[in-house]
Amino acid sequence: MILILSSDDDVHARQVMHHIAERGHSATLLNLADFPKDANLIFEAGQSKSRREMHYRGKTIDLSKVSSVWWRRPQPYGIHPDVTDPVLDNFAIREVDEAIQGLWLSLDAEWINVPRRDEDASRKAWQLDVARSVGLTVPRTLITTDPEAARTFIDREGVDRTIYKPFQGSEDAWRETRLLKLEELEKIDAVKYAPVIFQEYIEATCDLRVTVVGEQIFAAAIDSQKAAYRVDFRMDMNVAITPTTLAPETEMGIRKLMKALDLTYGAIDFRRRPNGEEVFLEINPAGQWLFVEDQTGQPIGKAVADCLIDRVRTDSIPRLTHPLMNTIPMPPATSAVRTNQTVAAR
User: Fold this and answer.
1) pTM beyond cutoff 0.90
2) pLDDT digits (tens, 9 = 90+) for 213-232
3) Residue 213 maps to which CATH number?
4) Helix residue spans in the chain (DSSP H)
């Protein structure tokens, strides 16, 4: 069985499930927003036969039969509405997370991506360092809560040559990448309240979205410089997106990056300079691809489905080393565990 952890309205998950069904395999979508509010977990150990089940939407999911899992975009847990005391609410969240994380460790399954690897790879500071270390070109970057450090960086780059962006976005607090304006300098002291990412602005002929699925690399050029907003292509998607070829050194760097981050899937953003140099911006371990596939015809969804199917094992021999060993994070100390499960829509 293939298990997909995401939301009900995830069109990417639905498309992959369609491809999986076409190949004669089954896939189950589990929305953690229903647990434990509307779903029950049964885990038994210490007997001659263990039991791992989720009673979910009128059916029983036998988790012992799961051979591959897509850690797509798992949602925050849905704590029962009867729990209204904040202290008990926090306790319930921690207990749910302990049980679920232990459950993932108990599955004899392959993951795309391993949860801890997925979480680590989404950290902007680390991914920039790793990208540089494997030979990819990265922008000059400052992450700071020090207003004076921010002013020094901006003075060096130039006000109109500096972009700033958040670490993550959410539906209620989404922020695009912005080119710094002169009048915004008077607000620079606000960085003391939360870290800000400042980077050199990369002049470009186009943006690149590179989707990696296993050994396959799908590169697409986004004609972003003809858009109404040239700094962040997500603000205006009414431009051409076409397949493209990457420089050999970029492709080599991407393969090294994926290996260093220990990822099977990743959506990577680059900018291509007028001289042809391809500059790494960031990687999203759960990034979208349908907007690329729709215009380019690149079979990305099918590649994800194939990757999940290829990880379905037919043997019953248990592995000596579990794929998730030493990779599951300890639960956060506050109810932030709810939001930490999700990756911003990018």
Assistant:
1) no
2) 999 999 999 998 786 667 66
3) 3.30.470.20
4) 11-22, 86-106, 115-121, 124-133, 147-157, 248-261, 290-296, 300-310, 337-340
